[in-house]
């Protein structure tokens, strides 16, 4: 029976403008005219027209059908030069358009942007902004009334473009390394005390580019590490700074191989202290409190405000010689356009989103901490086959599971810090459903409604994190047998308290993975399971119809674990027959080779030993069914295996094929003995 390996998280590309709009029409019927009209205006002599065109393209880039039109019309080559436009406003909106395009366009669009040499003007812009930050306060372009710092805001947009592209393109990361972008973005990060938004964007980018990038790690000298340390230990305690500290901690974890060995323990303790503090906060209560604070603030604000446009137009912006002065009449109106490009500006909502994001990232980093560095972890995470030795049928379940369930390699420093900061306990608390009051508040407010999905994502990440923690810590560190039994009851309640849980694929995959791991541990330690066979069958019958292969693999594995335990007990004949029929149905009818292989593995385990299992196998005619299926499985493996499976997967499936032959021979012996 297989053991699922820990899943590594890679930072997903972040859409800074929220959800991209889904396509409503077929691409073939799209009209390119909006894109054409806006792209033509990019060459207009008026800076205001160019800025408006960039803002329009930024909105257009959020619509999936329009992305293809923008790509066909070579928008990247036309927007790229505007990153160095004489007008600061044009620079910012051009960067905003590219930011949206890279965030919503995905891997292909980002790779195409690199092919079309967007990195050249982007790096040049980042360097100019860096030089601008070294200038006097006058040349920082700060308008007190608008609270607008153009250099930093342009840098923020540019860093987000850089981040999105580097997430998707190894060529972009190579250019990042070669052009010395690290020094530039670290300078931006050093301004965290005065511009946390820019610092957060840099921290997201750094977490992305430092992952699996040994060439860049060589560039982290003592001053660079000092910048990270200063940000990570900032005394400011707002939710935005909580997010910043979490992101920087993730970057430091990526740098662990270059840190002095004598400071490894202290560093890991510092990281997990940050994650512990982040997870300590109850997001449901925070949502309730922050929404109430927003309501009070809005009620206290005057119903109407007089716009002092004339007074604001009387102020001028001091521009560098090479940058065009922004027309006075744009100062008030331009915020309408920029607001479309930036994350939510409502103070309370922004802070709440920052906390939710910090908790999600903390959970993902903890998962990665619990993963081994074996490259195969990125392969078939959900699948591995039984022992292929000739004597595997004679091994007891305890011997087999003892081999499979040995904790993954985990450094003593991480192990100690996980337990010292009560990380398992805090993860257990996060696997519950979001606070119903908070969900109700968000559902009644359109701007807060997206937070429901974020809260659900945190629950799913916590379940994945639970799987990882269960895999690397021993039973005593997890609270002993009673704690595991309580956890099993809690997981079963989570599953069955949501009637339509089958529709929530991410949740179902996460909870079935955690449950699979928990049941493996409990079975290997002879801890009685709290879920009844009927409950497990109900879960498996629902989960096997999921379109997600991982879910189907998990449910057949769960049945295999349960069947192994029941096979050693008396009076379980009928339940074993039910399990056997279910597994045979899945093995012979599921379209996925992965699922079929895991199901055969489960059959081998359930019916490998035990008097009740032997009787059940004969009564459900297991031998004849497997004999009939054997040539079908071989043919399917031969025809579909190489086209649909990786090399590692094929090795596992070949192992299953060999074990199927041996198991049939074993069952022939059993049947002769029982029927003679």
Structural class: mainly alpha
How much is the radius of gyration in Å?
Answer: 29 Å
In whole angstroms, the N-to-C terminal distance is 31 Å
According to DSSP, the number of beta strands is: 2
Strand order of the largest sheet: 1-2
Which residue ranges are poorly predicted, with pLDDT under 50 across at least 5 consecutive positions?
A: 1-5, 11-18, 22-30, 136-147, 304-344, 374-408
Mean pLDDT figure: 83
Percent of sequence in beta strands: under 5%
Instruction: Give the overall shape, derived from the CA principal axes.
Output: elongated
Largest sheet: 2 strands, antiparallel
Number of helices: 32
Give the proportion of residues in helices: 55-70%
Task: Please give the structural blueprint.
Elements: H1 33-41, H2 47-60, H3 64-72, H4 75-79, H5 88-115, H6 119-134, E1 142-143, E2 148-149, H7 150-168, H8 170-178, H9 181-189, H10 196-209, H11 214-217, H12 222-232, H13 239-254, H14 264-280, H15 283-300, H16 309-313, H17 330-338, H18 347-370, H19 397-404, H20 412-420, H21 423-430, H22 436-443, H23 450-472, H24 480-496, H25 505-524, H26 533-543, H27 549-567, H28 573-589, H29 593-606, H30 611-619, H31 622-644, H32 647-675
Antiparallel strand pairs: 1-2
Helix pairs in contact: 1-2, 2-5, 5-7, 6-7, 6-9, 7-8, 7-10, 9-10, 9-12, 10-13, 12-13, 13-14, 13-18, 14-18, 14-20, 14-21, 15-18, 15-22, 18-23, 19-25, 21-23, 23-25, 24-25, 25-27, 26-27, 27-28, 27-29, 28-29, 28-30, 28-31, 29-32, 30-32, 31-32
